Structure to design on (1013 residues):
């Protein structure tokens, strides 16, 4: 199946999932209260995150043909998102400063004077367009990697904590080995070994980032398995898989949510570092910053490319961190007692 | 006691703020000496003249190893002049189509002083250069253990490849052979038939077929005389450096300090023939009296230079500078005498193709030169879609793609306009280059491209087999962000005619693997001439040089019997009217077949300070340091003027420090009372 079809399906699934979880949250007393509390604590950060998510979702929907693809013959046969369509035929010849009316190098008037909010890059492409497209890549990397790393960490952490003994030894050995390798080196090696693509960057990031959460979930499981209701379940002869699923996993869910939000910003930042090293994902903010490297030491300086990408990155990470802090305060039982 | 400490601290502060305030990276005592300061970026892997093939190695080696021939400093097109040889030999035809060149070495040539010559007995410090030393070096080029990159070119010498094979076989049979002194090893492998030594100074070089370009190879360090003593002595054992790090030559300079990661120093060689025999007025040891018309205008033929014995400069101090911005800043401060323009500062240094007023006020001068180079986008001619197998259909596709690339814009965007749009593989300065020639397929013409695509069966770029835009892959090993922009530019151009080119950026190893398998369609590459001959460019498309068959540099795998026939005829001719006709025919063939989209010939911009004379960019990598002259007084005064220390921040900082500390001191004493 073509990538754009998959992308559209994923968007549909995500939207359906969001609606379903919205309904679920409304029904459950505990989650509904948490959601209200979250909104009360950081409404702006939540709105900003939703804005980014919205842009990413809009950019993930695409179709072939239709209006607004521009004059490019190849584009007519490519799936274009609404954002691409908005910026079709919106190029200049080369650099132009934000909202400038003439090119950066001379006095030639621009084709679209005064309309490039963040200016244009060396090839005359609109920076705003690239920044908006970067949101999708950032969220994709954060999301897919978390989706890979968290289940992995849960699987190993819970089984190590619950079974103990040899299993615990084995998992702990694996974790120690992984954390004793410098993670940046491991990342580079993994990306080099696999082909350079978004998915392989996500896999590499997942491999290097699951250990932390694995440790937490193991410790939590060690505690949970000694609790009376787990012992009672065991005494009743219920199998370990069922116990883990019914009694341990639900009690780890708040940790999953907290980890997801906190891990997210770290992952987006890691991708920027990978891009800086030349092995990132095409079209990401990291890639834009990397491209802007030469422009900063240039004389006269071209600052808008870097600033736009940096600001977009900063905005997302700041908002996500605010939301993450709030989520932790609300969901973590320890802080819950202090705050409520 | 305490008071003493405070006054000592104040004294140090005052000393730092006033006396020692300089940014001069060199010792003060060197200011009076005629030292040329040069920056280099990459540490050379080896300085062995049989192997070293990089620009940085030639930067050192070219001054240390004199060759039999060299290039005239000023004349263009490039002209050979005798150096160690007394004359530039001409070809002597022999029976069976063989050709001989008779080199007559100058009498009384000496190697530089070096401890290794003690091996020759009686504790001497040097010895005479003989024709045998040239033969010895050519044997080294043919030594399989050295894996010299230029063995193909010197393989034109009769029997050189036979020597290569015999020596290899002998080494395999008898592992003990490698332990013997190097001359004994070569003696066991027998002589090279095409190198006949007659007396101390006569060398006859016999080629098995005409190859006029061989003379250019005798102007490169690969064929410079090398003493066998140096090879035996500098073996890397017992604290002696390896020969690759300790050159012993005959040139105007000798190496006196070598730390390739940081600094290299060359000093004038008192044994050089130009120093010992100024009365010879040898062309390689005297500043030339004739040049091109522009040389007189630019002061390169001024009376204080012309006819003077070389070298002017007594010491060359090479400093390693890994980063371009500090290197350029030191040039602006006067601590390097010349510099290339760095990309980042281009707009502030150059205004409208000339120096900016600020630069001119500093007395900086600019020399530009189109290098004998060509950069191109190549098609893999063994591919089914873009290659020769597709016949007229693929040819029209290549023509259409060639018509869309705008070289002038490309050069402007990515090289600050430093390049000449290419019409054919031959760059300016090379025989056969025609400034009037316009390749009809190298002009931007999107309508014609679209028409050609219709003829090729891809109307509007659509592939009839899939109903979608024709999809091609562009392989590149440049994974940098800048490389991505270059590729994006090309891809965007091709999109204009409806062709969907996907960039496959891979690392070097993966790219090599792809090239080996022939799994590539479009690629980009460049070539910088080894020597100023059209053969050195046209051979890149000779079928014998195909990468797929012979691992040659013909990465386009272009193979056309018509081209080959013309090439073989062209390569062994002197520059005459017939050769020009053959080149024109080859050009017409390439114009139609389009194995390459020639993009541009790179242009070099060299900046140098007003105190440096005798500078002319060469394009080819041959050293010209011995022609340079320094005006030391001017340099010193400019350095002082440009590096006037700004002291007020130091005083300001000291004042702030005092203001911060004093209340504490007062409090301390008050509390104690």
């Amino acid at each position: 199946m073509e990538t754009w079809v998959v992308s559209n399906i994923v968007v549909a699934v995500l939207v359906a999932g969001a609606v379903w979880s919205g309904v679920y949250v409304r029904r459950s007393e505990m989650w509904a209260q948490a959601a209200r509390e979250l909104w009360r604590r950081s409404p702006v950060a939540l709105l900003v995150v939703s804005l980014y998510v919205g842009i990413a979702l809009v950019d993930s929907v695409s179709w072939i043909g239709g209006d607004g693809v521009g004059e490019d013959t190849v584009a007519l046969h490519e799936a274009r998102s609404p954002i691409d369509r908005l910026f079709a035929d919106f190029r200049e010849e080369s650099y132009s400063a934000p909202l400038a009316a003439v090119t950066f190098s001379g006095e030639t008037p621009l084709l679209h004077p005064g309309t490039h909010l963040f200016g244009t890059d060396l090839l005359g492409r609109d920076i705003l367009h690239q920044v908006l497209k970067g949101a999708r890549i950032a969220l994709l990397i954060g999301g897919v990697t978390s989706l890979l790393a968290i289940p992995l960490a849960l699987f190993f952490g819970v089984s190590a904590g619950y079974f103990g003994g040899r299993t615990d030894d084995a998992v702990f050995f694996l974790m120690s080995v992984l954390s004793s390798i410098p993670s940046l080196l491991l990342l580079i090696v993994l990306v080099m070994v696999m082909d350079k693509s978004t998915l392989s960057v996500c896999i590499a990031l997942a491999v290097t980032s699951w250990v932390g959460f694995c440790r937490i979930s193991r410790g939590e499981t060690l505690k949970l398995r000694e609790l009376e209701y787990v012992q009672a379940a065991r005494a009743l002869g219920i199998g370990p898989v069922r116990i883990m699923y019914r009694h341990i996993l639900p009690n780890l869910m708040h940790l999953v949510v907290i980890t997801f939000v906190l891990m997210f910003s770290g992952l987006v930042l890691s991708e920027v570092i990978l891009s800086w090293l030349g092995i990132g994902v095409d079209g990401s903010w990291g890639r834009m910053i990397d491209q802007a490297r030469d422009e900063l030491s240039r004389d006269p300086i071209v600052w808008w490319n870097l600033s736009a990408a940096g600001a977009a990155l900063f905005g997302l990470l700041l908002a996500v961190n605010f939301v993450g802090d709030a989520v932790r305060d609300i969901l973590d039982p320890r802080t819950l007692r202090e705050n409520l | 006691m305490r008071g003493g400490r405070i006054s000592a601290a104040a004294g140090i502060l005052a000393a730092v703020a006033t006396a020692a305030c300089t940014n001069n990276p060199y010792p003060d005592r060197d200011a009076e000496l005629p030292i040329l300061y040069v920056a280099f970026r990459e540490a050379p892997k080896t300085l062995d003249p049989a192997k070293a093939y990089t620009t940085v190695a030639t930067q050192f080696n070219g001054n240390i190893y004199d060759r039999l021939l060299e290039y005239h400093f000023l004349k263009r097109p490039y002209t050979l002049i005798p150096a160690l040889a007394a004359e530039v030999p001409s070809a002597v035809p022999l029976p069976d189509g063989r050709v001989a060149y008779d080199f007559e070495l100058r009498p009384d040539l000496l190697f530089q002083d070096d401890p290794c010559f003690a091996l020759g007995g009686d504790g001497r410090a040097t010895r005479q250069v003989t024709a045998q030393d040239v033969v010895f070096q050519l044997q080294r080029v043919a030594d399989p253990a050295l894996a010299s990159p230029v063995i193909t070119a010197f393989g034109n010498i009769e029997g050189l490849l036979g020597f290569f094979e015999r020596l290899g076989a002998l080494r395999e049979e008898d592992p003990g052979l490698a332990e013997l002194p190097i001359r004994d090893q070569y003696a066991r492998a027998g002589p090279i038939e095409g190198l006949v030594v007659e007396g101390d100074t006569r060398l006859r070089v016999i080629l098995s077929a005409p190859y006029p370009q061989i003379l250019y190879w005798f102007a490169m360090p690969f064929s410079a005389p090398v003493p066998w003593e140096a090879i035996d002595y500098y073996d890397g054992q017992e604290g002696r450096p390896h020969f690759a790090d300790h050159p012993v030559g005959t040139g105007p300079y000798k190496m006196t300090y070598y730390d390739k990661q940081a600094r290299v120093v060359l000093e004038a060689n008192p044994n050089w023939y130009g120093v010992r025999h100024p009365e010879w007025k040898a062309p390689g040891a005297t500043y030339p009296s004739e040049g091109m018309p522009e040389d007189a205008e630019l002061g390169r033929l001024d009376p204080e230079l012309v006819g003077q014995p070389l070298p002017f400069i007594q010491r060359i101090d090479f400093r390693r500078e890994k980063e371009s911005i500090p290197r350029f800043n030191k040039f602006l401060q006067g601590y390097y005498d010349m510099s290339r323009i760095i990309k980042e500062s281009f707009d502030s240094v150059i205004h409208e193709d000339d120096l900016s007023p600020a630069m001119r006020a500093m007395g900086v001068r600019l020399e530009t030169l189109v290098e004998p180079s060509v950069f191109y986008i190549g098609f893999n001619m063994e591919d089914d879609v873009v290659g020769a197998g597709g016949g007229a259909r693929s040819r029209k596709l290549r023509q259409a793609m060639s018509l869309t690339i705008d070289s002038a814009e490309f050069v402007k965007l990515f090289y600050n306009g430093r390049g000449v749009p290419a019409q054919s593989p031959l760059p300016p300065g090379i025989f056969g280059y025609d400034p009037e020639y316009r390749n009809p397929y190298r002009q931007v013409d999107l309508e014609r491209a679209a028409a050609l695509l219709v003829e090729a069966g891809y109307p509007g770029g659509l592939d009839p087999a899939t109903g979608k835009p024709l999809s091609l892959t562009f392989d590149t090993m440049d994974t940098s962000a800048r490389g991505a922009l270059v590729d994006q530019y090309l891809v965007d151009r091709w999109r204009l005619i409806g062709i969907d080119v996907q960039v496959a950026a891979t690392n070097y190893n993966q790219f090599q693997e792809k090239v080996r398998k022939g799994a590539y369609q479009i690629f980009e590459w460049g070539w910088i001439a080894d020597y100023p001959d059209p053969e050195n460019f046209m051979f890149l498309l000779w079928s014998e040089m195909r990468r797929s068959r012979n691992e040659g540099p013909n990465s386009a795998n272009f193979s056309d019997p018509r081209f080959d026939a013309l090439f073989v005829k062209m390569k062994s001719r002197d520059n005459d009217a017939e050769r020009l006709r053959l080149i024109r025919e080859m050009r017409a063939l390439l114009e139609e077949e389009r194995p390459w989209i020639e993009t541009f010939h790179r242009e070099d911009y060299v900046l140098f300070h007003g105190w440096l004379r005798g500078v002319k960019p060469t394009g080819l990598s041959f050293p010209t340091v011995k022609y340079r002259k320094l005006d030391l007084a001017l340099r010193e005064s400019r350095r002082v003027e440009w590096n006037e220390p700004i002291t007020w921040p130091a005083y300001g900082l000291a004042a702030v420090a005092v203001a911060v500390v004093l209340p504490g001191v007062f409090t301390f004493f008050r509390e104690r009372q």
